[in-house]
Design brief:
6 helices; about 190 residues; mainly alpha
C-alpha cells in the first residue's frame, strides 16, 4: 500500500530528477580547457600592454576572455555543490548556448570544405573555403580553439540535462541566445 497522497505524489514528480549516470568529466574538462586558453590569451594581452599597446587595442581579446571565463563558471556550477544556488534553467541554457556558439563556425567550415572536396561547391580561396595549406591550418586551429571545447560543453549540457528537471525549451532558448550573442559579437568586432 502506497503512503503517497495525491499532493505528495504531485510534488515528488515535479521535483524528481531523472536517474542517469552522473558524469562530471565533460564540465571539468571544458572548464580546464577554456581556463588554459584564457590564461594564454591573458598573458598575451599583458605582454602587449607591457610593450606599449593600449588596453583598447586588446579589447576584443579581453572581451573574449571575459565571456569564456563566464562559460568556465557555468561549467563548474553544473557539477559543484555551490552551483545549486544558480537556477538550473540558467545553467542548462548557458551550457547549450556555449556549445552552440563554439561549434557553429567549425561545423560550418567542415560542411563547406566537404562540399568543396566532393565537387558540389567551388572554392573562393578565402575564409572558410580556403583550401590552401594556410586554410587547412586555420581549419585545424578552429577545431582546437572552438570545436573541442564546444564538444565538451555539449557533453556537459547533455549530462546536466539528464540529471535536472528543466523544461526542454531552455535548450532551444540557450542555443538561440548563443547564436544571437555570436551575431552581436560579430557586429561589435566588425
Amino acid at each position: 500500500m502506497s503512503t503517497n497522497t495525491p499532493q505528495s505524489a504531485a510534488t515528488s514528480s515535479a521535483t524528481a530528477r531523472p536517474k542517469a549516470p552522473y558524469r562530471r568529466w565533460p564540465a571539468l574538462a571544458a572548464a580546464s580547457y577554456i581556463s588554459t586558453f584564457c590564461l594564454v590569451a591573458g598573458v598575451a594581452v599583458l605582454w602587449n600592454v607591457a610593450h606599449g599597446a593600449s588596453w583598447g587595442e586588446n579589447g576584443v581579446v579581453v572581451l573574449a576572455v571575459s565571456l569564456r571565463m563566464l562559460t568556465v563558471a557555468m561549467a563548474l556550477a553544473s557539477v559543484q555543490p555551490w552551483g545549486a544556488r544558480v537556477p538550473s534553467w540558467i545553467l542548462l541554457a548557458g551550457l547549450w548556448g556555449a556549445a552552440a556558439v563554439q561549434l557553429m563556425y567549425p561545423l560550418a567550415e567542415t560542411v563547406v570544405k566537404a562540399l568543396i572536396l566532393t565537387g558540389v561547391m567551388a572554392p573562393v580561396h578565402k575564409g572558410i573555403s580556403n583550401m590552401s595549406p594556410e586554410g587547412w591550418f586555420n581549419f585545424g586551429a578552429m577545431w582546437v580553439v572552438f570545436g573541442i571545447p564546444g564538444i565538451l560543453f555539449l557533453l556537459a549540457a547533455l549530462s546536466y540535462r539528464s540529471r535536472t528537471a528543466v523544461r526542454s525549451r531552455w535548450v532551444l532558448l540557450g542555443i538561440l541566445g548563443g547564436v544571437v550573442l555570436l551575431g552581436g559579437l560579430g557586429v561589435l568586432i566588425g
